[in-house]
Here is the input.
Amino acid sequence: MHERLSFYVKRESLLHQLNPLTKLTLIFGLLLPAFLIPFYWAPHLLLVLVVFPLAILGKVQREYFTATARLILPVAGFLFVMQALFLPGGRTILAKVWFLTLTQESLMLAFANAMRIMVMVSSFTLFMLSTHPSELMSDLTHRGLPGQFAYVIIATLQIIPQMQAKANTVIAAQRSRGLDTESSFIGRIRALVPLVGPLVFGSLVEVEERAIAIEARGFTSRRPKTSLHEINDRPLDKGIRWFLLIVMLASLLSRIWFS
Amino acid sequence: MNIRIENLSFRYPNGVLALSGVSLEITPGEQVAIIGQNGAGKTTLVKHLNGLLLPTEGRVLIGDWDTRQFSVAKLARRVGYVFQNPDEQLFTKTVADEIGFGPRNLGYPNERIQTLVEDALQLTQLQGMRSMNPYDLSPTWRKMVAVASILAMDTPILVFDEPTTGQDAASVERLATIIAEMKRRGKTVLTITHDIDFCAENFQRVIVMGGGKVLLDGSAREVFGQEEVLAQTYVDPPQITRLGLRLGLAEVVCTPQEFLDVFERHCTA
Amino acid sequence: MPIVKLRQVTYHYPLTPTPALQDIDLDIEEGEFVAIIGPNGAGKSTLCYTLAGFIPHFYKGELHGTVEVDGDNAQHSNLSDWVMKVGLVFQNPFNQISGAKYTVFEEVAFGLENLGVPRAEIIRRVEEVLERIGIADLADRSPYSLSGGQQQRVALASILVMQPKVLVLDEPTSQMDPIGTREVFGAIRKMAEQGITVVMAEHKVEWIAQFADRVIALWEGKILLEGTPHQVLTDERLCEKGFGVSRYTTTARLAIPRSLWKKERPLPVTLEEAVAGFSDSLQTHRQEGRA
Here is the structure.
């Protein structure tokens, strides 16, 4: 069976010790500056001087860099190439192949945008690596988020690996009925319905059962919930959140005033 | 159609050795049950029969086809595999459509598909439900739809993965009848099952697996008489066999009829 | 005073003309172990969900009659309050994992967190229930890394820790392998011995005969038979209607016309009873043979 159905990695680190809401705020505390500050090198600096050290601080550098290599870089890289070749408005032409024009301006802009994407996805990744879904859920519920809402967030995080496992079985079952998944492009498109159908319907059945299971554990009870683990919200956390709020505000203002 | 498994070993990508040097031959028309505790390699073994898994070492021959040289879709002409969870394959709007999916994929002419679908509906007693949406049926009947959709592919070899799990007595009865009919038609049937009584009453040959190897392979009677080996694999003998053993009968028995015949002789001995 | 009282309970699933349950009258005393048998579709699960309050609160549809547990009426209560009275464990162990917790200990504590139990008491109760069910060694494991039998016992612990008055089990071992089945029934047996009121829907006749105080046979939504395991499980009507019958019973029945089982002797349901009965016949035959 699956050992881990979430991205969370259990470590003793400064990042892990932070309150979940603080880490959630951190995502936006990184995102907004990366996208708003009008200084060209802002996203690059944020990535190297803030994100990377945070990964090390959280002792999740190995998982982070693996995820970067596998997921983040390919996506950012693809966007970079697309933007470099297709962004209009450049004047200093560096290369020209057929109808594709590479200009210095588009190259620089694409680079910055790719960095922005990387900062954004990295901040989410760091969050998921260092925050256990149940702690996040408990904390948000304590602060007044309706339980059902919190559950949807958690269930969504769990759903990806679960769906993948299920998808593999569905593919195997339909191939065993003669469904050709290796032939033509059209063939593969046609194969989508017999693959997606059972995935969705089968999942619906499971979702209903799980809803009953958590209901049977009092999930929708109106009583104030307690929690097994103490979730810290130290003065440090509050301080960090205020600091991040100021950073976000400053980013916004810098955009308005300097661009 | 013959099945030949030659020195099959299989290692999962994560390093686990699930099968170790398994060699078997199954002749056309045999009814074989594969038993053993979870993790013994049963499902891993049968997934090699239709090419879902390919050997790390050794080879698997379905008739004259080496499974490494044919796609799963191609092998589906010779091996029909009924998965354990019907919800992992049902997707059409009607039962009849669902059953026709397999034969259509195999490219059979329309007339033949019609006949096969009718036949499958009859065997599984689904005729009255042919126009219903499979998801409107109870899980027990959804299982029958899954079985019917493989029967309709008219393959010489059939593989059932835990067909009786969660089924009631009437449904198990239906499955037993289907297997008997497949035997009559000369098809080879392989079943993975935890239901030892079902196994004893419907299968002549029993293969016991443990730790990726074949531990026992013989007639039901031969296999179920071997108490020590069975105990090691946490397999309980069938109820009737246990009764016979407790009463000290000279022969190993597997069904009520056998028991009574042997017991009678025992009484008058 | 029975702890469970059902009077004239009739239920239709939404948009379904045929009732899933019809005129069910049932009393269950505190501490009783009641088994429910029947073919698939007879209403076993429906009855389980009705006792647990999911019918009508989760499944809607039309419920008539009264469902009372410990003096309270199910229809007039909130489902979130009802689940504290009646616990429910069902077939698929994987779907009962909440998905919100990282270890078995946390998973079992989940229900108590939802009910607002103070932390110290949560820890005490979880430790106690894990010991009782025999899964204390799994406390730090991820629920997803466990076998089916282990997961089902975790589900059982998660419900028992909430200390319901009645425990309802809907075919808890139907998806288990033989080891898992043994583990789960072992845990249930311990519960039963400690006096918890248990209602269990099951196909495995031999186990029922060993545990149950009473057996209810459902057929097409109605109670067909009711009585001790022996009375019900050896009744001829079960064969006609396609219920699962113990092979020991079947064999003995076939043995009677061949004088291999004494007519006066009650039909066996378990191995022990069958051995005793056939040994008896053997003795008699041997004696007659010598005579």
